[in-house]
TrEMBL record, chains A, B:
This is Acyl-CoA dehydrogenase. Residues 622-758 form the Acyl-CoA oxidase C-terminal domain. The keyword Cytoplasm does not apply. The keyword Flavoprotein applies. Pfam families: ACOX (PF01756), ACOX_C_alpha1 (PF22924), Acyl-CoA_dh_M (PF02770), Acyl-CoA_dh_N (PF02771). Keywords: FAD, Flavoprotein, Oxidoreductase.
Length: 767, 767
């Protein structure tokens, strides 16, 4: 009689190993031979039994599919009855399942030899057993969304006193005229965007920021809220809107005087007078102080002649000019009697009311762009274009009746930066617009991840991908960032709206920094959102495409981010030096004492190794850690710069060596401000449910930032490895916890359904 | 007589302070008052003198522009004659410039008081002085490109034995028919791409990978070189080409048998028979094992019925099908007598020769995408489509004459992964295509940065932006990565082309990992390139737009990167266990000894603090550091997984907790492989000039990776802060050095001019 497992059940001891061998690509050909060798060495088997067993692991003659499935059935039947520790124990269970085929003595003899074989083949029996045992219902696939707080209340908290403006904009962009679709034809797209802008102007959205006497609402905060809310919709619309009512209109308001307001503001606010803002030149992008366009004053007829001398002195990327603009604010060097009086601003007509381009003006189209193709960016060249005296925007400098230059600000440099300072609003509108785009992306990706199922335990339901730790790690920190940045930008806006003159420097530095911080965060957020939505994230109908490509240029315009971060850093360095300079002896003494205290309270071995969860979630710990980083980086930068110059490096070269260090100054400063604002906001929340979820988000924001900079903290000895590892673990745990709140937290953004893309709205079922 | 600086020169001591006060926004209004207070306290001044001085710092009445400029002239004249240490010393020089207005005694009295005032106002005199002294010619603005090696020889080194294929492709894509332009109209774009593919097929590029007996060239390596070189051109073309000749053709070759080769391969290679590869379903993207499409075998007429049961079981994103494909390889569960035999592959016609869609087949268009709009991705639904018996691709499983399932691989799981394994070529073609896109982006951004000037020392030439440290830090590491990945992917290709069966698992794991590594690297590289080109990087004419958006999906298709990294990690974990399993007692003893040796040689205080440049550039140090990281991460993962399961976690849940750790396993493994291949390549270079520059690039690659992971090294105590700081400094230094080689290093890629975008080619002058 032929040997079978049925008539010789003790041989079944090898079934688990055979199953594993054929199940996956786990064993190599050589290992199949090794297994055969092992069988040959078993003295308790007869030759016939050995030969039979070896037929089951003949690499060139696999078992039939049905036999293989029978093995699996045997394993499945027994795996949960008893609790085998490895494949040998499981094999014994199978061998003895019908009747005792292996005696206790046999087992004592066989077990150690088999265990050694398992280990030599690298089969970690224990884990494979765990795999066999895996349930169809696991923690991972049963997890999901929980509503633990009142979403509407959180929306109210976010919108604050701006909700009336926000709701009005949401209503407009949800209307049928504003239906979103991909318009590949650039000309058509631009007209659509212009039409949308006209509707907004008609609804009274265009002139919020202008004084009431010129048809406006004197509500600059409202203007920013409109910009931000519009950003849930098409971003070409936002930029066109911002160029017309922000850059163009505000350049008149900020740099001009009464006569200009009277003449232009009303028509700008109604879009009767479309215009642009012509600062950037092909050869001077971020270094706007270096513009080469000239405005030569002619005293005889009191006019200015605007000219772009060389080809690449032309004005480039000027929004609202390739098709629609009729006038622009031009930044040009004022020349009087061949003497250069620095950069000033002038209103220059470029088209008549019938859209004919005026003499001396050449307008080219910038052509197809990565995004924002609904905005008509143009290139402007001026060849001796004469404009009247009144077209000089003369708030900060004038040409007097004698044809002499006059200004309350003697330094050309300082005057120019004062002019730029009045235009800082753009650096508030852009980061807020960027934040809205990040929120939209997060809402799409999180709602998709909550529904989309992929992989799962054998035989069990597939798992919503947002339950995967890696997926959480990709999205949850950005959700926390969105809230942190929201509160921080509200703070910036309020500071700006209620500014005193002596605060302007600080506010400018803050705006420059927050613009960079927010736009880079949006870039990173949308990148993760795209990948987190897989192929769906690549389809234009799901919006991440446009959100990502439109905001891509946010890191460049209104000032290249790396350049702006240098600005912020310079301001911080100046502040640091002043603080230090103003200290008298006792001040310095206190400073030294403070530093020593930090060493005692924060850098002692207990603190640097403290992994207690309560400590890691302590707001005091966070603010100390953030401030410590900020202070150390700025003071080491001051010392380093001095050392470089002392060593004979030219100041310009030294500044160059310091570039990356400067970015760190700005980054650590901004982290601290955002942290403080988040802490402050928490202190104002009374609703228990909201407070709890916001505390979790806050902790994730704080600890994720510490985790991002842990190399620095380790280098400084501020934390030891054991603590940074505990932070990492807690970040992961917080991501897991917040995943339950994630959908409601995006619901609280209250983004119009029509802006959320196909996977979230009409085709939600397919996820 | 009124007091003036001229008639009372001692007062000029304050000119530098006054200049600084009005120059920038450096002093606040309060500080102007403080300065007035200071003047009031100077006992050596008369009241009239004080009053005069105070008029110069009256915040509401600034000096005239011309007076301000006179101050600057005085400073400029004196600053380089002597060597003042601060503003007071400079003031004294000015005061005494005509005649000695201040005596030695005066100076001794005044100087300390003034120095204190400077410090209290936070004016760091020394640095301001350094700024005044800044030369027009600095190190930073005089730096630039140097040619230190033979570019053509480096190109030869990169191309190796593939240069004949590469040059042929370059010639074709440089021809007028292949002129690149932005085509917004999707339909037009798709036809253009099809035309390009036809030209390539006519030139004999389509059938490289097929056996000679079916019209091919049996040159799979050549096929990959073609794919990579085409990727300098339009990436829609590359993907369409890859779908037709790679996915569609290779699925027949890899999964079919003789009868299929005879019938189809020739027509596929000439594009007579356009087709696609229908694996992905809406509900099953990365989890392809879960596809729901069925192929029911009908024994009576020996046919199969293909069906997509539920709506979202449809095949989605299928390239080459929305417009052009006539047949596709469909992956479906084979059902015989209502029994499921796992996923198998079938050839299913979808259109006739006249492009009419066949009965039972529904084809929808995926619509507009973020990129690759020249590829016609479609959605395929099959309603009981009957195909003949011969259309089953039957290399790994067959239905025999009795209508029974037969396969040499009993496990459905293993069989499916064996099938997928034969298709691993896609995971070689994609990372190589991604690399080419990164090289194109780098070439554009580096050449732009080399020419584009922005900012500079006062009065000096503006600086090429590539001379800025921050700009170098953004681009140089990616240039090093491009070379490292180039050598690594060549290694992968050679391994694949010369593979033995027992190596397949390792090669599959390597390909999955390198696909993720390369595509993520391209994503990051192109992001930096876009930002590094500022507004120019946003214009479609400069190509970064398309390169970025087209490769965006590379991180998702051919397997989502995070999923693929898990695959790689599983393989590494398996290998680790086998190594450990196979160790006998003496092996384990040796392992323990080795670990101890690591501690002695690498983790002793001398090594962990060694900042010697020679040590930091030592290849032995690098390979030890990389291997240490790899081994520690994999062994800690093995221990951690065991611990989680021991603690009662379900295996599926434990695997979920381990996700981020698994990514680290794969990442550290890939880093080590790329490092080894770069080291190996260096050892083969004989040309001195090339060797030197490649050593620099190699060092940057190695040290930049260590810098990226320094938090981990610090946590482990493998390095101390002093060493990681030295690494950062050396990375910065290497970036500075390589900047000189950067343009020639991109020239060596030898990318056709026509593929480099407007800023590099016809409009180069404008930079």
């Amino acid at each position: 009689m032929d040997i079978t497992f049925n008539n010789n059940p003790k041989l079944s001891i090898l079934i688990p190993v055979f199953y594993v061998a054929w199940q996956d690509d786990f064993l190599t050909k050589q290992e199949f031979s090794a297994l055969a060798g092992f069988i040959n060495n078993q003295e308790w088997l007869t030759k016939a039994e050995k030969d039979f067993l070896k037929t089951k692991i003949d690499y060139s003659s696999p078992p039939s599919r049905s036999e293989f499935f029978k093995w699996k059935e045997k394993i499945d039947t027994l795996i949960n009855k008893s609790n085998p520790a490895n494949l040998t124990e499981l094999g014994i269970l199978i061998a003895n399942s019908e009747r005792p085929a292996l005696s206790e003595d046999d087992i004592l003899k066989i077990a150690p030899v088999f265990a050694k074989m398992e280990s030599e083949l690298g089969i970690m029996g224990q884990e494979i057993i765990a795999g066999f045992k895996s349930k169809t219902d696991t923690v991972t696939n049963k997890y999901g969304t929980v509503k633990s707080f009142d979403v509407n209340k959180l929306t109210e908290l976010l919108d604050g006193d701006q909700s009336v403006h926000i709701d009005k904009v949401k209503k407009i962009i949800s209307s049928p005229e504003f239906k979103l679709e991909t318009i590949s034809d650039t000309a058509e797209y631009r007209e659509k965007v212009l039409d949308w802008c006209k509707i907004l102007a008609k609804e009274g959205m265009g002139n919020y920021a202008y004084p009431k006497e010129y048809g406006g609402k004197a509500d600059i905060e409202g203007y920013f809220s409109i910009m931000e809310t519009l950003s849930y919709h098409d971003l070409s619309l936002v930029i066109k809107f911002g160029v017309q009512f922000g850059l163009w209109g505000m350049s008149i308001l900020s740099l001009g005087t009464e006569k200009h307001y009277k003449k232009y503001l009303k028509d700008v606010g109604t879009l009767e007078l479309p215009g642009g803002f012509a600062m950037t030149e092909t050869h001077h992008g971020s270094n706007v102080k270096g513009v080469q366009t000239t405005a030569v004053y002619n005293h005889r007829d009191r006019t200015f002649t605007i000219n772009t001398p060389e080809k690449y002195d032309r004005k480039e990327y000027i929004g609202n000019t390739a098709n629609h603009g009729e006038m622009v604010t031009v930044f040009a060097k004022l020349i009087i009697d061949e003497k250069d009086y620095g950069v000033n601003a002038f209103i220059v007509p470029i088209r008549d009311k019938n859209k004919n381009v005026l003499e001396g003006v050449t307008i080219e189209d910038c052509g197809h762009k990565m995004g924002l193709n609904g905005v008509d960016n143009g290139i402007l060249t001026f060849k001796n274009v004469i404009i009247p005296y009144d077209n000089m925007l003369d708030r900060f400098s004038q040409v007097n009746e004698n044809g002499e230059f006059e200004s309350p600000i003697p330094s050309d440099n300082r005057r120019f930066f004062t002019m730029l300072g009045t235009l800082v609003g753009g650096r508030i509108g852009i980061p807020r617009s960027a934040l809205a785009a990040a929120k939209t992306g997060l809402t799409i990706a999180i709602k998709y991840g909550d529904k989309r199922r992929q992989f799962g335990p054998d035989g069990g339901l597939e798992v919503p991908i947002l339950n995967y730790r890696m997926h959480q790690k990709r999205l949850m920190p950005y959700l926390a960032n969105a809230y942190a940045i929201h509160f921080g930008l509200q703070y910036l806006t309020k500071r700006f709206v209620n500014r005193k003159e002596e605060e302007m420097q600080e506010i400018e530095a803050l705006a420059a920094g927050m613009k960079s911080y927010s736009t880079w965060n949006t870039r990173n957020t949308l990148q993760e959102c795209r990948e987190a939505c897989g192929g769906k994230g690549y389809l234009s109908e799901n919006r991440i495409d446009d959100l990502k490509n439109d905001t891509e240029i946010y890191t460049t315009f209104e000032g290249d981010n790396t350049v702006l971060m240098q600005l912020t850093a310079k301001n911080r360095l100046g502040e640091f030096r002043k603080q230090f300079g103003q200290m008298n002896v006792s001040g310095i003494f206190n400073y030294v004492i403070d530093q020593a205290k930090t060493s005692i309270t924060e850098k002692n071995p207990f603190a640097t190794r403290n992994t207690d969860e309560k400590h890691l979630k302590d707001k005091e710990f966070h603010i100390h850690a953030f401030r410590y980083r900020e202070n150390e980086i700025v003071s080491s930068a001051a010392k380093r710069f001095k050392r470089l110059v002392d060593n004979g490096l030219d100041a310009f070269d030294a500044a160059n060596v310091m570039h990356p260090h400067m970015i760190q100054i700005a980054d650590s400063y901004l982290d601290r401000v955002f942290l403080e604002q988040f802490q402050y906001k928490l202190s104002t929340i009374t609703d228990e449910g909201i407070k709890e979820v916001m505390e979790r988000l806050y902790n994730l924001f704080a600890l994720n930032k510490i985790e991002e900079h842990k190399a620095w903290y380790l280098e400084q000895g501020y934390m030891e490895g054991v603590k940074t590892k505990a932070v990492r673990k807690l970040v992961s745990q917080l991501c897991w916890e917040i995943r339950q709140d994630a959908v409601p937290l995006t619901d609280a953004f209250n983004i119009p359904e029509s802006c959320l893309g196909a996977i979230v709205t009409n085709k939600a079922a397919e996820a």
